[in-house]
Design goal:
The complex is a heterodimer of chains A (189) and B (177). By secondary structure, chain A is an all-alpha fold. Chain A folds into three domains: 101 residues, no CATH class; 29 residues; 52 residues. Chain A is 72% helix and 0% strand. In chain A, helix 6 runs antiparallel to helix 7. The longest helix of chain A has 44 residues. The two termini of chain A are 27 Å apart. By secondary structure, chain B is mostly helical. The termini of chain B are far apart. Chain B folds into two domains: 131 residues, no CATH class; 44 residues. Chain B is globular. The chains are: A mainly alpha (189), B mainly alpha (177). At the A-B interface, helix 1, helix 3, helix 4, helix 5 and helix 6 of A face helix 1, helix 2, helix 3, helix 4 and helix 5 of B.
């Protein structure tokens, strides 16, 4: 590999992503940075990090920045990447917080936010549909999705309780089966 | 002081439970914020929506909850307790994994977790919709946004700003809801 990237350039590259990534798609920016713009990671490394970042708790884009920073330059690289990625957004939401706490009674701000909320509902529904699409057709997934939704939204169980009920069921459904019975392509990603 | 501690505990727990990237803990976040901190559904949805307008990770809007409840100190406490626990966990497991390599049971765990995370995301949609949908206009705006995102490649930021301006104008001018 070429020379080791400077902590400074890791910070500024992720800061740039944090600044321009309005409206989502951060992971796509990160992929382009790491694989095309700077070639800091190989495709294999990136895919492994991506899977890890999505499986583990936490924000996927932050996990991805942290793990790739760590792979490039260790803990300092991880910190530089995460701080760079979140700084612009943190400044923005702080300003919004101050404005919202003072101006919550302005009728114009409220109708604007009401419109934005309606749009945001459509947005979050689209993200859920897109991520869920492959699962909405699997007999092993649909009952789990429905049961989780009902427990959470209608029985109002706490998240911990829901996980305590659903995780064992999920693990049982997906318990390892002898290979000759399980040969669907999606299981060897 | 005890409010700060409660904020820290609440958001650390949400952090560790945020499988699938934050959306999954939205319903729990909404429950806890209304029960322990007296934040109503409308405020929750307004703040969530502001996150959609911000650059970078949208879930950074949790900072606004912290500010609303306990000022700048509350904002800082929420930011750190929401990011740090999951990050420490992810980084340690990530390093361990890199050393051990792939194992078959990992696939089973991931297959088991995915539909649960999707079910939780559905609850997240439901929680946001309960605050955001209050009439024909908001339903129309939400469904239009949904179909435009699914069918075109339009930037979501432009779309969300558009629903704010258009929806807001229709509400003010015609009094539609």
């Amino acid at each position: 590999m070429k020379q080791t990237p400077a902590i400074r350039s890791i910070f500024f590259e992720f800061l740039l992503i944090g600044l321009v990534s309005f409206g989502g798609g951060i992971m796509a920016y990160e992929r382009r940075l790491l694989l095309e713009k700077r070639k800091w990671l190989t495709n294999d490394e990136f895919m492994a990090i991506l899977a890890m970042g999505q499986t583990m708790p936490g924000l996927n884009s932050v996990n991805l920045a942290m793990l790739s920073g760590d792979r490039i330059r260790g803990l300092a690289g991880a910190l530089a990447a995460v701080i760079g990625l979140i700084s612009p957004g943190v400044c923005f939401v702080l300003a919004a917080a101050v404005a919202y706490s003072q101006g919550a009674d302005y009728p114009l701000a409220n109708v604007f936010l009401a419109g934005v909320s309606a749009g945001a509902t459509g947005l979050i529904a689209s993200v859920t549909l897109r991520i869920g699409r492959p699962h909405f057709k699997r007999w092993k997934s649909v009952p789990v999705i429905l049961a989780t939704f009902v427990c959470m939204s209608f029985f109002k169980l706490s998240l911990v309780t829901v996980l305590l009920i659903m995780v064992p069921i999920g693990l049982w459904l997906h318990r390892p089966i002898p290979p000759e019975l399980e040969s669907t392509p999606e299981n060897k990603k | 002081m005890s409010v700060l501690l409660q904020l820290a505990l609440t958001f650390s727990m949400l952090s560790v439970l945020a499988v699938g990237g934050g959306t999954a803990v939205l319903p729990e976040m909404q429950n806890v914020l209304s029960m322990r901190f007296g934040l109503d559904r409308l405020e929750f949805v307004h703040i969530y929506s502001m996150g959609q307008l911000s650059p970078g990770p949208n879930m950074l809007m949790v900072v606004i909850f912290g500010y609303k409840i306990e000022g700048f100190l509350g904002a800082a406490v929420v930011l750190f307790s929401f990011l740090l626990p999951s990050s420490v966990l992810c980084l340690s497991v990530g390093r361990l994994w890199h050393r051990i390599g792939e194992r078959p049971w990992r696939r089973a765990v991931q297959n088991a977790m995915e539909p649960i995370a999707i079910g939780l995301m559905c609850s997240g949609v439901y929680a946001v919709a309960q605050g955001a949908i209050n009439g024909l206009l908001s339903v129309t705006l939400a469904l239009t946004t949904l179909s435009l995102i699914m069918l075109t490649r339009i930037n979501t930021m432009v779309l969300i700003l558009g629903t704010g301006v258009l929806g807001g104008a229709l509400m003010v001018i015609f009094g539609w809801r």
